[in-house]
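Example with several molecule types.
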Amino acid sequence: MGIEFYLFLLINGLSQGMVLFIVASGLSLVFGVLRVINFAHGSLYMIGAFLAFSLSTLLPAGSIFSFLLLMLLVPLAVALLGLGLEIPLFRRIYGKEHLLQLLLTYALLLILDDACRLIWGGDIRNVARPDLLAGSIKFFDMFLPTYNVFILVVGPLIAVGLWFLLYRTRAGNLIRAAVSHPEMVGALGVNVSRVMTATFMLGCWLAGLGGVLMSALANIDLGIGMEKIIECFAVVVIGGLGSIGGALLGSLILGVGVAFIQLPLSRAAIVFPYFAMALILIIRPWGLFGKPER
Amino acid sequence: MVNTISTYYPVAIEMNPDILKIENLVKSFNGNTVINGISLSIAQGELSAIIGPNGAGKTTTMLSIMGLNRPKSGTITYRGKDITGHAPFKIARAGIGFVPEDRRVFPDLTVLGNLDVGRRTPKNKSKKWTLERIYKLFPRLQEFSHRNAGTLSGGEQQMLTIAGTLMGNPDFLLLDEPSEGLAPIIVKVLGEFIEVIKQEGMTVLLSEQNTKFALKHADRAYIVDNGSIKFEGSIDELEQNAEIKKRYLAV
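Resulting structure tokens for the full complex:
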């Protein structure tokens, strides 16, 4: 096993980490602004992946445009589903006690997961990679899977896009202002409910995008939602809840860590996220990029 | 004991119609009545001061006007429209600007970001307050425009809160205890600012414990204690009322 193998592991870990980042940043954003930990976030990601699968069967196979269309439509669909959840349900639990929030979002997780079972069944699925992304790219004298490289481009683009949105636009200013003093944002003439709905939809959009990307990276089945929400929790604990930079770092640590530890430990590598999470909770309970609670 | 001298001199009111009218406002928290039947009329272009000790009901009145709490009974009318219990953002869009007492800047946003949150051009109105004007009035804010608001001093945060509210181009400004906890030199700057906006014809409702500051800038005064109004009238009338001065202004 030469350097090629380790580079392959690294690329694999990084691309898993990038998908994880896209999903976890949505969870973290929703928590940061709305102060609700959405247990159903992984289910929204899974719905994104299955929607991508269903839609892909209707589109010409192998075309890059089909895949780009999936990336365009599926996250939007998941965001709209988010809208349908936010207005009647989530809006009622902002600022309420944690137990109530947990009950609602966990109930939603169960409902959405069972809805997936009803609609898509228990089969293992995946979305075929478009021809353009199916092969390998020559990197010096090594061959890297093009799709993984593609994800390594999309992930940072999303990170930069989120940063730009949050730190360089008025919408971002409103979102970040609503984190500290929502009532004051309202007193300045801003419809805060709308800001919160939009933030929730953005979080769902990110879950949906993660689902699309994952549907062509690995197999998808009914377990991926639960698996991803647990990884997302590990990411936000490591990186700090509410921090997008923390979500990026936490995701990459987790993705690369699991990829490398799988080598000697195989299935036991599944403990890595918990181990990393426990370690961070001991040495820096508010996460790498988070702030201690006041 | 409500002084109603003002009703004998309705001239000023006829010239300047009331833009805000509060009738019989009552508000209680957990069974304790905080405001017990407050009524006020604020004329266009006037600076009215609500003066009273801590817990008198000044802030509660302001929060009720802004829709940030729901009164038990009573009505609040702004420009002839009932706004009682409306959402704060709608009240702000109607033209009321609110500067809360605790300098509620957005600490993780830059000074510029804070001003951006407040930025709003009301419909069919000229945009009086621009970034350039704000910076001219508060040069410190320009100097620190890219610093996080949380790193500013108390006085600078107070100026930023006021500036952010002005960015919404309100035509009626609620200032809740703006001088509280500020160094005398900053209070002076604040006073100069108040004179500037008064000259521009801004209607202001100022709540203060700092009687001297309030009387210096106000056209009218309301003295509140224990949730009700003990005196209302012009500053001259207040100056002539020895009993009220002795009882509530500790003069």
